[in-house]
Write a structure and sequence with these properties.
With 350 residues, the protein is an alpha/beta fold. The protein contains twelve helices and twelve strands. The strands form three sheets. Strands 5-4-3-10-9-8-7-6 form an eight-stranded parallel sheet. A two-stranded antiparallel ribbon has the order 1-2. A two-stranded antiparallel ribbon has the order 11-12. Helix 8 links the parallel strand 8 and strand 9. The termini are far apart.
Length: 350
């Protein structure tokens, strides 16, 4: 398992900043100007990358009104045919080159989720630096083989997948040529509920499958994503939109620009706070160590007089001998006259 993956000028891996991906999805609402504004918002918020989805209605499904092709489960999409849904929300392939270029101009890595082999061929021509496999596509072995043949890094979402399906997907990608994989924990519900997230799966995925791990988060808010960082997530993917009230297929569980900016800020704070195992004092702690207790003379003492519980105490500040020497000093004699309020040192003890 390699420790890091290079994506343009950025790196994904242990010891690197969390790689934060803004998911465009269909929140552009069929307007390329809106898509460009979302890229700008992601860049301004501090994201590391923008992710697209590459498919057409015809590569995703067929145009049929048979009940089998009617969406029945999602409140926002219920009643539409799959073809109608994908026709409404797909990102036209004619936009991709401009979106890739604009993202690069704004300092973002740009990549996509292909949903069939022709999409991979198309993205290869655009020089996609990495591929994302959506949770629903983790079982599409022919697609995984095609992606693997590019030998490029892969970010793989595991939503709904069993351990066996995850293992098969990773095995397929590696056997086909992919050497670098980041496995994202994901709950494929839109929106997902925090109580269903089971974030402790993240370190288990890393241990079980020996890959780097992250989170594709469909919950409302930022708490789940921030918590995942503490559990080892090195990639965070979150949907972004300009304004939820304007609607869109994924608007209900997408962050607005100010919220995404807050997410980035909180993730950076969390990773800074995690740091590394250490028992050395911080600079602030070094300044505050004087507020520890230490041994002080609390009554005037004459030369040759014994130290007793009455004239010697462990009090703040910390300029005297450490409290652990209290019993060793009791009963010993003062080497000179000592004024009340003097921190005890060994030169004062006979």
């Amino acid at each position: 398992m390699r420790t890091s993956i290079r994506i343009g000028k950025r790196w994904i891996g242990k010891g690197e900043p969390v790689f934060i991906v803004a998911e465009l999805s269909g929140n552009h609402k069929g307007d390329i100007k809106r898509a460009l504004k979302i890229i700008d918002a992601a860049a301004d918020a501090g994201a590391d990358a923008i992710k697209l989805q590459t498919y057409t209605p015809d590569t995703m499904t067929i145009n049929s009104h048979d009940p089998l092709f009617i969406v029945k489960t999602n409140r926002a999409w219920k009643g539409k045919t799959l073809y109608e849904l994908y026709k409404e929300v797909y990102t036209p392939w004619s936009w991709h080159k401009r979106l890739f270029a604009h993202a690069k101009k704004r300092g973002l890595a740009c990549f996509s989720t292909p949903f069939d082999e022709t999409a991979v061929d198309f993205l290869e021509k655009l020089g996609a630096p990495i591929y994302k496999v959506a949770s629903f596509e983790i079982v599409d072995i022919p697609l995984l083989k095609r992606i693997g043949k590019t030998k490029k890094p892969v970010i793989l979402s595991r939503g709904m997948a069993s351990r066996e399906e995850i293992a098969r997907a990773i095995r397929t990608l590696k056997k086909s040529g992919t050497k670098e994989i980041v496995l994202l924990h994901c709950v494929s519900a839109y929106p997902a509920k925090p109580k269903d997230m089971n974030l402790k799966t993240i370190p288990d995925l890393k241990r079980r499958f020996r890959v780097q791990v992250g989170l594709s988060d469909h919950t409302l808010g930022n708490d789940v994503a921030i918590t995942s960082v503490a559990l080892g997530a090195i990639v965070i993917e979150k949907h972004v939109t300009l304004k939820r009230s304007e609607g869109g297929p994924d608007a209900a569980f997408s962050l607005e620009p100010r919220e995404f900016k807050a997410l980035v800020r909180s993730i950076r704070t969390a990773e800074a706070a995690l740091g590394k195992p250490t028992y050395t004092r911080s600079s602030d702690e070094k300044e505050n160590i004087v507020f520890r207790k230490s041994l002080f003379v609390v009554q005037n003492i004459k030369k040759g007089e014994r130290f007793t519980k009455a004239n010697l105490r462990s009090i703040r500040p910390g300029y005297g001998l450490a409290p652990r020497f209290y019993d060793a000093v009791l009963g010993k004699y003062a080497t000179r006259d000592i004024a009340r309020g003097t921190p005890l040192s060994w030169r004062l003890v006979q």
